[in-house]
Amino acid sequence: MAIISKEFYPQAGSLVVLGAGESGVGTAILAKDKGFKVRVSDSGQIAERYKNQLLQEGIPFEEAGHSTAEILKADLIVKSPGIPETAAIIVSLKEAGLPVIGEIEFAAQYTDAKLLCITGSNGKSTTTMLTYHILKEAGLNVGLAGNIGQSFAYQVARESFDHYVLEISSFMLDDMYHFRADVAVILNITADHLDRYDHKMENYVDSKFRMIRNQTVADYFIYCLDDPETIAGLKRHQTEAVTFAITQEQQLSQGAYLGANKQLVIDAKTGEEFQMPTAELALKGKHNIYNSMASGLIAKVQEIRNDILKQAMASYINIPHRLESVATISGVQYSNDSKATNVNSVWYALESYNTPIVLLLGGVDKGNDYSILKDLVKDKVRAIVCLGKDTSKIHEAFESDTDLIVNAVSMEDAVALASNIAEKGDTVLLSPACASFDWFKNYEDRGDQFKAAVLAL
C-alpha cells in the first residue's frame, strides 16, 4: 500500500527533528520506537506539554536555538512544515547534502494502512472531518491526522489503524517525495501563502499537485472540474490513478455532480449509484456541496453502503471555527468562521447566508485581493467591523460597497459594535480573511474570544 521503499532513507542511526510541536514530538516518538538515536531542536520555546512528553519518553531536546554543528552530524532530518526552505538551518542542511523530509513522509513508511489524503486552499478541514465521520459511522478502524488532531507519526507509533484520513497542507506536501496516497483529493486551489512560493501562483499549484506523485493504477484521484487553477495544473501533472471529478456545473457519467431537483449524485462504479437531496445534507452552502461530493466519493471507493453514507452525511456536525453557529441573541444570529484566513474562504462564507450580514473582517493581511468580495459585500453586508492593527486596506476596498465601516480595538469591542449595528434577522459573521497573530495566538484563540464575547452579551 503506502509503504515507502527502505532504500530512500536510513532505517536507523542519528535523526534530528526540527520543531517541537505536535508534528515534531510525534515524529520523535516514532523515530525512537524504530531504533533511531533521536534529538529534537526548536528555535523557540517548547510548550510545556510537549516538553513533558519528551521528558517522559527520554528524548533529548534543545530550545531557543539550533546547535547547527551537532545537527549536521545527523543521518536524517525531519522538519516541521512551518519551517520555510529559506531558514538558515535548512539552507545549511541542504548544502551539506542531508536528507530533509516531513513528518508525513517519515511516518508513511511505517504503516501499511490506506491513506486517504485531502488538500485544497479551502474546505480541507471540513472534508477531512466529514470523511472521518462517514468511515467511523461505517465501522471502519480509522485514524484522523495530518494538519488536524493528533500527529500522524504518533498514531503510527502507538495506534493501529487500517485507514487514515489525512488533511494535508501545501507546507506538508513540500516535504514529501516518495509518499503515496491511496486516495488523493485536491478540492480547489486559490491564492494563499504565496509568500512561501516566490509570490508565484504556479509554484503554489505545483505544490498542491505533489498529492498525486507516485500514485499507481491501484489508487484514486479526486479533483474539482469547476476550479480553474486545478484544471490548469492538470495540464502539467498527470497521474496513473483512477480519476473522478466533482462538479456543480455539468453532469458526468462517473464522479459526483448535481442531478435533477438538486440531487447530489455520486457514481464511482464500485456499486450502486448514490443519490441524496442537497437539502438533506448536514453541511449547507454551495462550497459544502463540493466538500460533501469529495467525501462521498472517498466513501464510495471504500465501498461504504449507500444507507450508511446517507445517514452520516445527514448527521455530521461541523468543526469549530468554520461557519460555527454560536448563539441567536435578540433575533441576531452570531456565526464563528475564524478559520477563514483567506479571501476565498470569506467568499464561501458570505455565499452561505441569505440574511443581512455584519461582517467582522481583518487581521494580518497576506497580500489579500478583496475584489472578488465586492459584489457579495454590496448585496449582503450591512456593515464591516475591522479587526487588527492595520485596517486601511479594508476601508479602501469596501468604502463604496457598504454603508458603514468601523474599527474595533479588541474582539470584545468588535462584538459590542456589531451587536449595536445588527438588526433583528441579521447575522453577525466573524470571517476575517486574514491571519490572526497580531491580536491573537492563532485562529482558534480568535474564534474562542469571539464566542466568549458573544455569550457575554
TrEMBL record:
Q: Which GO terms describe its cellular component?
A: cytoplasm
Pfam families tied to this protein: Mur_ligase_C, Mur_ligase_M, MurD-like_N
MF term (GO), any: UDP-N-acetylmuramoylalanine-D-glutamate ligase activity
Stretches assigned to the Mur ligase C-terminal domain? 321-434
Record-annotated Mur ligase central domain positions: 118-297
Q: Which Gene3D superfamilies does the record cross-reference, listed alphabetically?
A: Mur ligase, C-terminal domain, Mur-like, catalytic domain, NAD(P)-binding Rossmann-like Domain
Q: Where in the cell is it found?
A: Cytoplasm
Pathway where it operates = Cell wall biogenesis; peptidoglycan biosynthesis
Q: Does the keyword Ligase apply?
A: yes
Name the InterPro entries for this protein: Mur-like_cat_sf (IPR036565), Mur_ligase_C (IPR004101), Mur_ligase_C_dom_sf (IPR036615), Mur_ligase_cen (IPR013221), MurD (IPR005762)
Q: What is the main EC category here?
A: ligase
UniProt keywords, alphabetically: ATP-binding, Cell cycle, Cell division, Cell shape, Cell wall biogenesis/degradation, Cytoplasm, Ligase, Nucleotide-binding, Peptidoglycan synthesis
EC number(s)? 6.3.2.9
Q: Which amino acids does the record list as binding ATP?
A: G120, S121, N122, G123, K124, S125, T126
Q: Which residues form a coiled coil?
A: none
The family classification in the record reads:
Belongs to the MurCDEF family.
Job description of the protein: Cell wall formation. Catalyzes the addition of glutamate to the nucleotide precursor UDP-N-acetylmuramoyl-L-alanine (UMA).
**Do you know which HAMAP family this protein is assigned to?**
MurD (MF_00639)
Please name the NCBIfam families in this protein's record: murD
Name of the protein: UDP-N-acetylmuramoylalanine--D-glutamate ligase
